[in-house]
Structure formats: structure tokens, C-alpha cells
Write a structure and sequence with these properties.
The complex is a heterodimer.
Chain A: H1 9-12, H2 25-42, H3 45-57, H4 74-91, H5 95-102, H6 108-131, H7 146-159, H8 165-177, H9 181-194, H10 199-208, H11 212-217, H12 224-236, H13 240-255, H14 259-271, H15 275-288, H16 296-305, H17 309-322, H18 327-339, H19 343-356, H20 361-373, H21 377-390, H22 395-407, H23 411-424, H24 429-441, H25 445-457, H26 465-475, H27 479-495, H28 505-518, H29 522-532, H30 539-554, H31 577-590
Chain B: H1 2-5, E1 14-15, E2 18-19, H2 32-46, H3 52-67, H4 73-83, H5 85-100, H6 103-118, H7 127-141, H8 144-161, H9 173-182, H10 188-207, H11 212-228, H12 236-249, H13 254-266, H14 270-290, H15 297-316, H16 320-336, H17 340-357, H18 362-374, H19 378-394, H20 399-416, H21 419-436, H22 439-451, H23 468-483, H24 487-500, H25 508-525, H26 529-542, H27 544-557, H28 561-578, H29 581-597, H30 601-617, H31 621-637, H32 641-658, H33 661-681, H34 684-708, H35 711-728, H36 731-747, H37 754-757
Antiparallel strand pairs in B: 1-2
Helix pairs in contact in B: 2-3, 2-5, 4-5, 5-8, 6-7, 11-13, 12-13, 13-14, 14-15, 15-16, 15-17, 16-17, 17-18, 17-19, 18-19, 19-20, 19-21, 20-21, 21-22, 21-23, 22-23, 23-24, 23-25, 25-26, 26-27, 27-28, 27-29, 28-29, 29-30, 29-31, 30-31, 31-32, 31-33, 32-33, 33-34, 34-35, 35-36
The chains are: A mainly alpha, B mainly alpha.
Organism (chain A): Cyprinus carpio carpio
Keywords (chain A): Cell cycle, Cell division, Mitosis, Repeat, TPR repeat, Ubl conjugation pathway
Protein name (chain A): Cyclosome subunit 8
Chain lengths: ~600, ~750
């Protein structure tokens, strides 16, 4: 079917968008202008927004370059009045009325608007009805009654090959709403082929793709929009590195001013917890687009993580002024209260966000966190469960559930949840460390060690994995391994430059000092001991060790021959000496 | 873009971030089907003169109609028609009067509805009265638009059947009418996919939403069936579909998750079952927290039981280490909360787990019993006692103590009506009697169990008969019948077992092992060793020790003595470790037989004496007599037939009373051979009578062997008889016997030394 759609107006106007390179920004701009007009005519407001945002970021065209409005066909002319009337009704959300006046129209544009009005009318009625459904169990049963009729009609037209890119998109949406996901993917792919510039189709496709294999198996049109799609898709699939690369190349290609791309990159940085970069980008975004509300909840998350109270407070007040009945605003306020430790109020605002949009995933999870803070574990579990219901792949909710049960002192029980979270984010060290801690509590040291080591290898965010691993080795009397871990830990801490809060470096140094001393590597030991003295809590021990070392050195015994001294100070080194002494005694007692 | 299509509804049932499914306490609401049921009730109470039989049938119908899922009008009318033809027309008339008329007619119906019940036999608090009042209440609560919607759906409901009564009940008219004209244009495969989706949609449609009442009833019924008679419950896939359907409409319906857990356990799906179990408890914890008066208690309690259930889940799937960890966690939390009842449950699981792992858990079990008795938990206490009895029986506790213990707990079971434990106790007694070799007692106990009426109330016309106890009793019965050569009966029992405990179920391994053992024995008796061989592998898969033993037996029969003795030695070590007395004695006997094969009769003696001591010590009568027969045979071979005969005659009584057919035959054969040996040594006049006695004994043995169709033995007997008759001078008899011998000898593969060297 794909080929039969190649005669859509966009391609007819000469702007064949088949170049994957972005050499011709002018052409792209022309395409954007034309698609904006088309979407506007059809009431696809979000696609209009996307396209015009992008167009805005490009340089303005001179007058003679601005594309002319597409020519009207005979049919279009005949339907013009009805379409005009219907569109006005449509804009006023009188969908049934719009559909009524479009019922006899033949042109593609009118047909789309006709079907779209019917679809939206069904959706609106569904939403209205949900409020006064007959009974509690029926609430899930309320459905868009128009969907099935629409599907039948659209499938008929589709098999006759009469659907244009917009109608295909609508057909796909109808299929998705009917939970016929496989068919929906096919149709959306066809829609992108027919009309690659319509961002809505791509976005819908994005929601339906669950893994990278599925993405690879699709044959998508070669068009510059595809790069935007891929970048978005990588973000969704948590393949942040690839996503960032894609966005970077888009920026270089000339979309550097696009607020859309800036926000997407900021979100991507947020996802890999590169907080500084993300904060920087969000600040820039707010400068360029001060009344933007989208993505501001993510921004507030970042501010929260950094405990930047004044900034968060400013953001919250600013957003309230713009529109206080937006989900994002409520989330920001929730974060604000949470940072001020007013958890009841925070939960209240997250609830408000959920009332505005019950499918708002982040709010459920955040509300769970608030309940956790309030020690209301049962409500927290409920909130997390809701989050999972909305999106099974929400690793934070799984992680939250695990944490809740861990707080309830049920480490084995929480293992399941952490494992789930780990499955979803295999390369996130936090889950691995949590898993390791659980295993440690269950005295499954082997598993715990594996977890910690893995956490370190995937890039430890909190830099705790090695320390925990070292302590575990210490417990298990695996001195060499423990020392090795401490060494890497110290190197790690010093190499990253910034001073971290937790003063565990002293623990590591203390242990290493003793370890070297035990192995009679006095130079290294004294070095460690000296470094120990830099820390308050290890100073005394450092000095003691230094004295010990100098005592040993005074005796003039530089290395391994010494057996008598350490037992006074160091209980650890007892392990080696007595054995050596006793065994010859034993032998002598046997021989006579 | 996506947000345009998301429903932006405000959920009125959400308070405090928690969605309460039932904030108004509405469990039921009016649907067109309910109106049809109401119409039926109305007609029933208004039409006074009605045939008693019709009325009775209708009355029986009411409850299922009220509780069941919504039916289509056609189905509904058909059911009513089967009961009372006149009623159908009245109901139909009334419904169509409403549907074809105006909204007012429906309103009118609801206004006159209470009048009909005010002076009829349906009390306000009866099932019918409650239903009627609930419906009225639900109807009165409807808003303007809802009433209109209800009326529209009633019209749809009635008119769906009207044009074409033969059409599929769930056919969607709009869809088909739209689809039909286009059918010519659509090519073949397109049509196929289209119709496929339609059927998907339709099946979705036909299931419809259940009201909370209906859903609860559905869950209760399916859970009950799963527990008591799995075969009558819905198939796993279908049940899961239904559950998903319920959960789609109400994700907060925690019980559905639990049923999903049970259902996936049924098909051994660890993934879904864990998921459902945890989900259930996550939800339950919430509903527990809801009742604030309950305080923290309900919440913490469900946490403890959540972990405990997780432990049982892992136990069920054989993940002992995981189960152990979970159990420890449960114990820790229960200890912190001072919940002795939960602790007690944990303890009983702990010893079960230990037992499953194969380690000794007597001390744990004893503790458990003591504490359970202290906290007045009769169920757990006697479960512990039963477990102790089982272990005791295996380790050779005196029989009287065991049976006393069982009797003591039995009294309590009957007092407390713990029918499940009564069943276990009966099955255990069966096993114990069987172990002691008292087949009559075992048979009697098994029959007692199978014929017992359960004390539990019989719901949904299903009586519980799928417990492990039943499986054990039936297996014993099958083996007992096999011993007596009644293979037709055995196959009947097996068929029943297969039906009652399908191969994927928990207790299926019991009958599988039992079936294999019987078939193995049969093949060995028939001398068809090649048939026995595959059974050995199958048995090993189910029970490695038993498999090894059977393998040794088979190798012995195939004269591969070296391999057999190796295996037997290995087995001996295993048994000593696991203290499995029965198997130890069996292994000793088999080793003794191996010594016979190498003519080491004297070396077999100490082994046999050891076996005798062991079996006497543990009251294992059948094994004792078996050992004695072995001893007698050894003595016979060592040339002391007098002693041998005395021994045989000693045990003959008990063998004939309790033994299997083959044992009886073997004992008599041995007796005859002793008599022959003695006769050889006796003086002339005694000799003839002695020989005649031997012939007589052989005849008796022949009866048993022929019942079993044991050809090898028959050949031996014919040979001996021919020799005897020859000595006695009965030429015709001799010829007859030798002819029979020759026939069998030609049929069987020859093995020269059989007559001499085995029992």
C-alpha cells in the first residue's frame, strides 16, 4: 500500500523530503511550514505545535521562498464551505455537530476531519461517562463506542487503498485504542511512509515499540524526521548514549535553537543522572521559553536532587502564576514541599496531579516516596503499585516497593522487587547495590559480592559499592581482596576530585595501613597512616600505627623475619605468627 | 500528542490517593439482564396458581441466575423455558413491553415491582427480597443520564435476539451489518484476519463486566473447585482469561490475584504465580490498613503471612534454599510481632521443609507439637503428630506406640471435625498396616477412607476427593490388588487416579510411581525382562532409591551379577544413611539371592539372619516371612531339609493370610521341595505318602502361579511334578506333566539351572 500514498499534497509541492542529510535547511523549513498548515486544517494541534516549534528554530524564509498553499482540487472546492463550518464547530469542541455537516463530503481533508470528529466525540463522551458510570466495576468498561464503527469503516477504506497519511494515522489510533497493537504498529508505519512529516504518527509508533529488536525490525521511511524519531525512541528505551549522540548531530545540523531538542537532551541527561548538564540545559530552556510548563517537573526533580531550595521555590511560584491546574505544576509544587519536609502537603499536591491525569506516572511514584517519608508504608505500597499498573516498566516504582519492604525488615521479600527493577535497568548501580545489601542481610555473601562488583563495573553512581564490597571481604577474612577493593576505592575517590560527604576514605586508609603493616610493607603502611591523620576520626589510630612502625624500624628489622612484635598492638597479625611457632614445637614433642 | 487521547477523567472514588472501589458500598447495579431476572421474579410472585413442579424448578433456578454472570436474553429465556413454558412467554411479554414502549414503561415496572413482593412469600430479608431491594436501591440512585443509558441498553438487549433467534447469541449486529456488504471486495486472507479480530472483540464482549457480587461468587466457586476437585474447575487458560478480565475492570480486586496465583501454580508457572502472590499481598496490605480500628495489627499480620506464603511457594517448586530464606524472614518478623500463631505455622513449615530436604527433623517436629498444643492449635498439633508418626514408622518405632498416637489424635479430629486430618490419618494407617504386611487391615482402612462421607459441607455439588490422602489410599489399593493378580481392577483404579489427579498436578507422582512399580513387577513375574527395563529408568526419575533397587533386581534376573552386586552395595550405603529400614532389608535379601547364584549359601546365612533380626525388630511381618523363606531355602540348599520344612511351615500361615499370590506360590513350592528332599531320605513306606504330599503341595502352588500366569514357575512345577509322578509310577500323569513342561520350555528361553537356584 505504501506506494499508493506517495501522491499526498506535501510531496506534490516539490519538497521531496528524502534526504537524510540536513544540507538543505531551507527545504526542511518549507516542509515544516506546509505540514503545519495541513495539520492545522485538520485540528491536529500537537503536531502543529511540534512542527512550528521546529520551524521557529530555523531562520525565516524570504518572501519568494515561502511555499504557496497547496492547490485545491475539484472535490476540495466542493467541500470548502462544509469544511469551514465543520472546522469552526470542531474548534469549539462540538464534535457531533462537525461530523454531521461533514457526512457527505468526498475530499480527503473533509473525510479525515469527519472521522476525527467522530473519534473525538466518542472520547469526550467516554470521559464524561466515566464520572457517572453505573457501578465501580464498570469504570474500566466505559469505552469509546465510536471506535468499532470507525475501525470497520477505516479498514474498508484501507483495503481499498483510499486512506491518506492522516487517515492512516487516525486508523492506527483507533486500532491502538482497541488494543490491536500489532495491527496498529503496521498502520503507523504505513502512515509514516505516506506522510513522514506528521510527527503524531511517529509519536504513536514510539509508544508502541517496546524494545530495540522491535525497532530494528521495522522498515521506516528515509526522511530527516526519522532522526528525530530515533533520538526520541532511544530516550524511551533508556539508550541514553545513543540518544544524546543523535540529538547532538541534529543540533549540529542546524536545529541548535530548537527548544524541543534542548528539552529532550535535558531529559536525557536527567535520565543518566548527569545533573549538572541537565540543570544547565533546563536553565537555558527557561531563558528561551520562560512560560513553558512542559518538562518542568523533570527540572524540579533535578533541583530537588541537588536540594536547590531557592531555585525550586522560584520555579514553583513562577509556574503557579502561569497555570496552577497543570499536572507539571502540581508535581513541581509537590517536590517543593517535599524538599521542605512537608510531606503531607507534598502528597496532597501529587494527588492533585493525579486527579488531573490519573495516568501521570511520575506522580504515583513520587507520591509513593512521600508516603515512605511519612512512614505510611501501606499507602506507599499502594501508590507504587498504581505506578506499576500505569507502566510496568517503571523501575523507580519497583525499586520503591523493594525499599518499602526493606524498611519493613523483609529483605528476602524485597529481593523480588529489586530484581524487577534491575531487570529494567540492568546497568544502574543503585539497584545492584540494593540487591547486594539484601543478599548481605540474608547472609548470602557470594551473591552480595557479585552484586557489588557488578555495581562497581557498571559505573557506581553513589560510590558505595566498592566500600561495601571491601567490608564484606573483610568480614569474610579475605584480606587481600579487601585491600584491593580499598585501594581502588581510594583511587576512585581521589580521581573524581570532588569532596564527597561520607568520610569513608579514613576507614579505607586505616584498613590499608594495618594491612601493609601486617605484610611488613612499612613504607606503604606509614604513608597510609600519615594520610589517616588528615581525618578526625582516624587520627589517633594513624598516630598509633606510625609509632608502631617506627618501633619496628628501630629494632632494625626491615622485613619478613620479624615475628615477635606485632602481637602486642595488632590482633590481626596474630593469625600468622603463632602457627609458625607452634608447629615446630609440635613436631619436637612427637619425635622423642 | 498522546495526551489528547488519554482520558482526562477525574476519579471521584479517589481519596487520600487511594482508589476505593466501593466507596458507596455498591456491590451490584442494574443491568438489562438483572431486569430480566426481576421480571421473572415478578411474574413468579404474581401468577399464583402454578404447578408445584414448575414452581420448584423455578425456585431452584433463582439462585444461580442471581449469582451467575450476565446471560444474553436468549440464553436466559432458554433456561427459563426448560423449567416452565408459560413463564417464558410472560417474561418475554413484559420485557418487550418495556423495550418496545417508552422509558416510562421501565419506570413503571420499577414502581410496581415492590408491590408484588409485599404480600408474597418472599420476605424482605430472604435472598430474593434482598436482591430485589438492592436492585431497587441501585435503580433509584441512578442519575438522569444513567437511567436513559440503562433503558437504551435494555432495548439493545431485547432486540438483539428478536430479528433472528437462531443467530449466535453474542453476535454484534452493528459490526456484522457493516461488514457484510464489503465482504465481496475484501480478498480472502484479509477477510480472515478481519473475522479473527471480530471474534476477539466478540469474545471480549460476551464476557462483559461482572458486578462485584458476581465476581466474588465466581472467585469463590473457582477457588473451591480448585481446592476440591480441580477437574471441575475452568481450564487454566480460560480461568486466567476470566481473571484478567475481572482485573481489567477492577484492578483493586485483590482476591482475583490470589486466584491467579493458585491457577498458575496449577500449571507450574513460577513466574506468574510469584508475581500474582506478591501483587495480592501488596493489595491486601492496603485493604488491611483501611480498617483503622484494626490498628496496625491487620497490616503487619498480612505481611507475615505474605512471606510465609512466599516460602510455601518456593517449597512447592522445590527451591529449598529460597524457601528457607523466606521462612527465616517470616519467623523473624513473627517473633518481633509476638505472633505465636504465625510462628507456629512457620515452625510446622520449617520441619516440613527439613523433611523435604531429607534431613532429620524429629526434634523440630516434637517442639512444634508441644507449642501448638500449648497455644491450642489443634490442627497444627495433630499435623505435627502425624508427621512424627510417619517419621517414627520409617525409623522403626514400636507399632503400638504409633497406632496409639494416631488413635489419640483421631479422637480429637472427630471432636473438632477436622475432616482433612481424618483423611490423612486413615491414609497413614493404611500405609502403616501395609508396611507391617497386614494386607487385610490395609485394605480395610483404605476402603474406610474411600467410603467415608466428608464432614465438610458439600458445595457446588463437589465433594473433596483430590487430597494426597485419597491418592495414597488409592495407590495402596492398586498395589494390593496387583499383588493378588487382579490386574483388571488395577487398571480401573489407575484410570480413576489419572482422571482425578492429572499428570501436571501435585500428587500425580504418587500414582505414576505406583503404576510403574506394578508394571515392573508384572513384567518381572512374566519373565519379560526387556519390558521391565524402560520402567526402571522411569522409576529412577521419580524415586532414585527405588529405581536403583529395581535396577539391581533386573540385573540379577539377567544374570549380570557383578553389576547387580555393585548397585546393591551402593544402595546399602544409601539406606544406612537415610535409615530406610524397609529398603535395607530388601537390599539384604537381594544380596543373599546373589550369593545363592554363586552357590555361596553359607555366606548368605549371616546376611539373612541380620535381615531377620531387623525385620522382627520393626514388626515388618511380610519382610519377616520373606526372610524366613529365604532362610529355609538356604537351609534346604545346605542339606538340612528338616529344619527348612519346619521354618516354612512356621511362616506358611501368615504368608497364606497376608502375602501376595507370588509369595504364596513360592512358599508352597519351597515346602514341596523340602518334602521331596525329606522323602528322598525317608524309609520306603513313608516315602510314598511323603511324595504324594509333595505332589499335593505342588498342585496348590500351581494354582497360585497359574493365576498370575507366571510361566517360569509353572515350568518348574511341571518338571517337579513329572519327576514325582515318575517316582510314584503314575505314567499317564507323568506324561501329561512332562508334556506341559515341554510346551512351556519351548516357549521360554531356556536357562538350565533355574530349578535349583532360586526360591
Amino acid at each position: 500500500h505504501v506506494t499508493s500514498y506517495s501522491c499526498v499534497p506535501l510531496l506534490r509541492s516539490g519538497d521531496v523530503g528524502m534526504t537524510s542529510e540536513f544540507g538543505d535547511l531551507v527545504q526542511i523549513k518549507k516542509q515544516l511550514i506546509s505540514i503545519t498548515a495541513q495539520c492545522k486544517e485538520r485540528g491536529l494541534v500537537h503536531s502543529v505545535k511540534w512542527a512550528s516549534e521546529l520551524a521557529f528554530s530555523l531562520d525565516p524564509l524570504p518572501l519568494n521562498e515561502i511555499p504557496p498553499a497547496p492547490e485545491l482540487t475539484e472535490e476540495d472546492a466542493r467541500d470548502l464551505d462544509a469544511l469551514c463550518l465543520a472546522k469552526s464547530y470542531f474548534d469549539l469542541k462540538e464534535y457531533d455537530r462537525a461530523a454531521y455537516f461533514l457526512r457527505g463530503c468526498r475530499s480527503q481533508k473533509a473525510y479525515f476531519l469527519y472521522m476525527y470528529s467522530r473519534y473525538l466525540s466518542g472520547e469526550k463522551k467516554k470521559d464524561d461517562e466515566t464520572v457517572d458510570s453505573l457501578g465501580p466495576l464498570e469504570k474500566g468498561q466505559v469505552r469509546n463506542e465510536a471506535l468499532r464503527e470507525l475501525r470497520v469503516e477505516l479498514s474498508k477504506k484501507h483495503s481499498a487503498g483510499e486512506l491518506d497519511g492522516f487517515a492512516l494515522y487516525l486508523y492506527g489510533v483507533v486500532l491502538r485504542k482497541l488494543d490491536l497493537l500489532k495491527e496498529a504498529v503496521e498502520i503507523f508505519v504505513a502512515a509514516t511512509h505516506a506522510l513522514p512529516l506528521h510527527w503524531g504518527s511517529w509519536l504513536e509508533l514510539c509508544n508502541l515499540i517496546t524494545n530495540i529488536e522491535m525497532l530494528k525490525s521495522l522498515s521506516l521511511p528515509e526522511c530527516w524526521v526519522r532522526d528525530f524519531f530515533m533520538a526520541h525512541m532511544f530516550t524511551e528505551l533508556q539508550m541514553i548514549k545513543e540518544a544524546l549522540q543523535k540529538y547532538q548531530s541534529l543540533m549540529e545540523a542546524g536545529f541548535a535553537k530548537s527548544t524541543y531538542i534542548i528539552s529532550q537532551i535535558a531529559v536525557a541527561y536527567h535520565n543518566i543522572r548527569d545533573i549538572d548538564q541537565a540543570l544547565y540545559l533546563f536553565n537555558e530552556l527557561r531563558e528561551q521559553d520562560p512560560f513553558r510548563i512542559e518538562n518542568m517537573d523533570t527540572f524540579s526533580n533535578l533541583l530537588y536532587v541537588r536540594s536547590m531550595k531557592p531555585e525550586l521555590s522560584y520555579l514553583a511560584h513562577n509556574l503557579v502564576e502561569i497555570d496552577k491546574y497543570r499536572v507539571e505544576t502540581c508535581c513541581v509544587i509537590g517536590n517543593y514541599y517535599s524538599l521542605r519536609s512537608q510531606h503531607e502537603k507534598a502528597a496532597l499536591y501529587f494527588q492533585r496531579a493525579l486527579k488531573l491525569n490519573p495516568r501521570c506516572l511520575g506522580a504515583w511514584t513520587l507520591m509513593g516516596h512521600e508516603y515512605m517519608e511519612m512512614k505510611n508504608t501501606s499507602a506507599a505500597i499502594q501508590a507504587y503499585r498504581h505506578a506499576i499498573e500505569v507502566n510496568k516498566r517503571d523501575y523507580r516504582a519497583w525499586y520503591g516497593l523493594g525499599q518499602t519492604y526493606e524498611i519493613l525488615k523483609m529483605p528476602f521479600y524485597s529481593l523480588y522487587y529489586y530484581r524487577k527493577a534491575h531487570q529494567l535497568r540492568p546497568n544502574d548501580s543503585r539497584m545492584l547495590v540494593a540487591l547486594g545489601e539484601c543478599y548481605e542481610k540474608l547472609s548470602q555473601q557470594v551473591e552480595a559480592k557479585k552484586c557489588y562488583w557488578r555495581a562497581y563495573s557498571v559505573g557506581d553512581v553513589e560510590r558505595m559499592a566498592l566500600l561495601k564490597l571491601a567490608k564484606l571481604h573483610e568480614q569474610l577474612n579475605e584480606f587481600d581482596d579487601a585491600a584491593q577493593c580499598y585501594i581502588i576505592y581510594i583511587q576512585d575517590i581521589f580521581s573524581c576530585g570532588e569532596q564527597l560527604e561520607h568520610a569513608e576514605v579514613s576507614t579505607a586508609l586505616r584498613y590499608l595501613g594495618q594491612y601493609y603493616f601486617k605484610n611488613k610493607l612499612y613504607d606503604e603502611a606509614s604513608l597510609c597512616a600519615q594520610r589517616c591523620c588528615d581525618y578526625n576520626d582516624a587520627r589517633e589510630e594513624g598516630k598509633a600505627l606510625l609509632r608502631q612502625i617506627s618501633a619496628v624500624r628501630e629494632q632494625g628489622e626491615p622485613s619478613s623475619t620479624d615475628l615477635s612484635v606485632p602481637c602486642v598492638f595488632n590482633p590481626l597479625s596474630n593469625n600468622t605468627t603463632p602457627v609458625r611457632r607452634v608447629s615446630p614445637l609440635d613436631l619436637s614433642s612427637v619425635t622423642p | 500528542m498522546a495526551s489528547v487521547h488519554e482520558s482526562l477523567y477525574f476519579n471521584p472514588m479517589m481519596t487520600n490517593g487511594v482508589v476505593h472501589a466501593n466507596i458507596f458500598g455498591i456491590k451490584d447495579w442494574v443491568t438489562p439482564y438483572k431486569i430480566a431476572v426481576l421480571a421473572l421474579l415478578h411474574e413468579m410472585s404474581t401468577t399464583k396458581p402454578m404447578a408445584l413442579l414448575d414452581r420448584r424448578r423455578l425456585n431452584k433456578l433463582i439462585l444461580p441466575l442471581q449469582q451467575g454472570p450476565d446471560l444474553t436474553l436468549e440464553q436466559f429465556l432458554k433456561i427459563v423455558e426448560e423449567c416452565c413454558l408459560r413463564m417464558v412467554n410472560a417474561v418475554k411479554h413484559r420485557l418487550f413491553l418495556m423495550a418496545d414502549g417508552e422509558l416510562q414503561d421501565m419506570e413503571h415496572f420499577f414502581t410496581i415491582l415492590p408491590n408484588a413482593f409485599s404480600d408474597s412469600e418472599a420476605f424482605k430479608t430472604s435472598v430474593v427480597g434482598l436482591f430485589m431491594r438492592q436492585m431497587l436501591l441501585a435503580y433509584n440512585k441512578l442519575s438522569f443520564s444513567q437511567v436513559y443509558k440503562l433503558y437504551k441498553s435494555l432495548q439493545q438487549y431485547c432486540h438483539r435476539v428478536q430479528p433472528e433467534l437462531s443467530a449466535l447469541p453474542t453476535e454484534d449486529m452493528e459490526l456484522t451489518s457493516n461488514e457484510d456488504p464489503s465482504a465481496e471486495h475484501i480478498d480472502k486472507d484479509e477477510l480472515d484476519t478481519a473475522s479473527l479480530h471480530q471474534s476477539e472483540l466478540r469474545s471480549d464482549e460476551s464476557q462483559g463486566p461482572l458486578s462485584q457480587k458476581q465476581a466474588e461468587y465466581f472467585l469463590a466457586r473457582q477457588a473451591y473447585l480448585l481446592k476440591n476437585d480441580e477437574n471441575k474447575a475452568m481450564s487454566p487458560a480460560k480461568l486466567q482469561d476470566e481473571l484478567n478480565n475481572i482485573l481489567k475492570f477492577n484492578p483493586d480486586f485483590a482476591e482475583a490475584h490470589y486466584l491467579s496465583y493458585l491457577n498458575s501454580i496449577r500449571v507450574q508457572d513460577i513466574y506468574i504465580s510469584t508475581h500474582s502472590l506478591l501483587h495480592y499481598f501488596d493489595r491486601l496490605i492496603l485493604s488491611g490498613g483501611e480498617g483503622k480500628s484494626n490498628g496496625d495489627e491487620g497490616y503487619g499480620r498480612s505481611l507475615r503471612y505474605a512471606v510465609l506464603n512466599l516460602a510455601t511457594l518456593h517449597c512447592r517448586f522445590g527451591h529449598y534454599q529460597q524457601a528457607d530464606l523466606a521462612l527465616q524472614e517470616a519467623i523473624r518478623i513473627a517473633q518481633e510481632a509476638n505472633d505465636h500463631v504465625c510462628l507456629q505455622h512457620c515452625l510446622s513449615w520449617l520441619y516440613t521443609l527439613e523433611q523435604m530436604k531429607g534431613s532429620d527433623s524429629v526434634v523440630l517436629t516434637e517442639d512444634s507439637v508441644k507449642i501448638a498444643a500449648h497455644f491450642c492449635l489443634p490442627y497444627l498439633a495433630s499435623l505435627g503428630i502425624q508427621s512424627l508418626v510417619q517419621q517414627g514408622a520409617k525409623q522403626g518405632m514400636p507399632a503400638n506406640k504409633l497406632l496409639d498416637a494416631l488413635r489419640g489424635t483421631d479422637i480429637m479430629h472427630w471432636k473438632q471435625s477436622l475432616s482433612e486430618l481424618i483423611e490423612i490419618s486413615l491414609a497413614q494407617t493404611t500405609s502403616i498396616w501395609r508396611m507391617y504386611g497386614k494386607s487385610t487391615m490395609a485394605r480395610q482402612q483404605a476402603q474406610l477412607l474411600l467410603n467415608m462421607n466428608s464432614l465438610e459441607p458439600v458445595n457446588f455439588s463437589v465433594q473433596q476427593n483430590n487430597t494426597e490422602a485419597f491418592a495414597v489410599a488409592l495407590c495402596h489399593l492398586a498395589e494390593l490388588h496387583a499383588e493378588q493378580g487382579l490386574y483388571a481392577v488395577v487398571s480401573d483404579i489407575m484410570k480413576h487416579l489419572k482422571q482425578q489427579f492429572p499428570p501436571h498436578t501435585q500428587h500425580a507422582k504418587l500414582w505414576m510411581l505406583c503404576d510403574l512399580k506394578i508394571q515392573f513387577e508384572k513384567a518381572m513375574n512374566d519373565g519379560k525382562y526387556h519390558l521391565a527395563e524402560p520402567h526402571v529408568t522411569a522409576i529412577s526419575a521419580l524415586n532414585s532409591t527405588e529405581g536403583l533397587y529395581r535396577k539391581a533386581q533386573l540385573l540379577k534376573a539377567l544374570n549380570q551379577t557383578t553389576e547387580a552386586s555393585q548397585i546393591l552395595q551402593q544402595l546399602q550405603q544409601q539406606c544406612e544413611k537415610s535409615k530406610d529400614i524397609e529398603m535395607t532389608i530388601r537390599v539384604m535379601l537381594a544380596s543373599a539371592e546373589l550369593h545363592w547364584d554363586s552357590s555361596g549359601f553359607a555366606t548368605a546365612l549371616p546376611l539373612l539372619l541380620q535381615a531377620l533380626a531387623l525385620s522382627r525388630q520393626h514388626n515388618l511381618q511380610s519382610l519377616t516371612s520373606e526372610t524366613l523363606l529365604h532362610l529355609a531355602f538356604t537351609q534346604l540348599m545346605l542339606g538340612i531339609p528338616e529344619q527348612a520344612l519346619v521354618l516354612v511351615q512356621d511362616v506358611l500361615e501368615s504368608v497364606l493370610a497376608h502375602g501376595s499370590l507370588i509369595d504364596k506360590g513360592r512358599a508352597l513350592l519351597l515346602a514341596a521341595r523340602c518334602q521331596m528332599a525329606l522323602a528322598g531320605a525317608a524309609v520306603q513306606e513313608h516315602r510314598l505318602t511323603a511324595l504324594e504330599q509333595a505332589v499335593h503341595t505342588l498342585d496348590e502352588a500351581a494354582v497360585y502361579f497359574s493365576q498370575l500366569d507366571c510361566k517360569e514357575r509353572m515350568r518348574d512345577i511341571h518338571y517337579l511334578q513329572a519327576r514325582l509322578h515318575h517316582t510314584l509310577g503314575n505314567i499317564s500323569q507323568r506324561n501329561k506333566c512332562s508334556m506341559l513342561f515341554r510346551l512351556l520350555d519351548q516357549e521360554l528361553p531356556s536357562s538350565g539351572m533355574t530349578v535349583v537356584s532360586h526360591l
